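Appendix B. One record, verbatim.
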Amino acid sequence: MGRVRFDFAGENVLVTGASRGIGRAVAEGFASAGARVHILADDPAVHDTAAAITAATGADCRAILCDITDAGAVEAALAGLGPLDVLVNNAGLERITPLLDGRPETEETFRRIVDINVVGTWNVTRRAAALMSAGGRIVLTASIWSRTAVGEFSAYVASKHATLGFTRSIAHELGPRGIRVNAVCPGWVRTEAAMRSLADMARRTGRPEQELLDEIVGAQVLPGLLEPGDLTLLYLFLASDGARDITGQAFTLDRGEVMA
């Protein structure tokens, strides 16, 4: 199998939600391709992640600790970045929010998911776009649940449907400025968030986690559970010159679970 190589030398890249999981893998991919990478997360581990990426790639990876639901904090965090070439809007929260669960904490969780996945995405994008000139690229992390749905995850599903609407709307708005906007819709990936959701589903249904996981993987055309690094090349492609004529699109990467 041939190798795929990208060159982002001299480019300034911001990846949110990059202290672990998909965001970390994508950030390391850009760093390996020569970019100067900034990783942002509301998690002190972001500093250790930046150091690990720098050590692994030799590239300049810098950490930003920030809660993206705080517009003022986002503005301050991005103020020193300078001209920005690529934004990967990956930060998000995934939790179960059963509709008939009357506990106050479920309502609080619903609001927090929407605040991070919708409002936070808006906060980062509007400030990052102001730092971009013609040729800028924005890639958002959506989900296969942007195209379909599952019970008891209404906040997350709704927020990811919103991600696709947001992608299409700002693609129209930023296109005249020469900025491209696309989304990636991952399927089940072995991340901390996905495995927590799997555990919640097992608890709610009374079924073993492995049985549910086997069912999920069995619904894919290609076998095996995706790992975070399996998604990296798609993000790099969408930020590359190879995708210069692509905008306003959503790309599903799920080993054939949802075909659209």
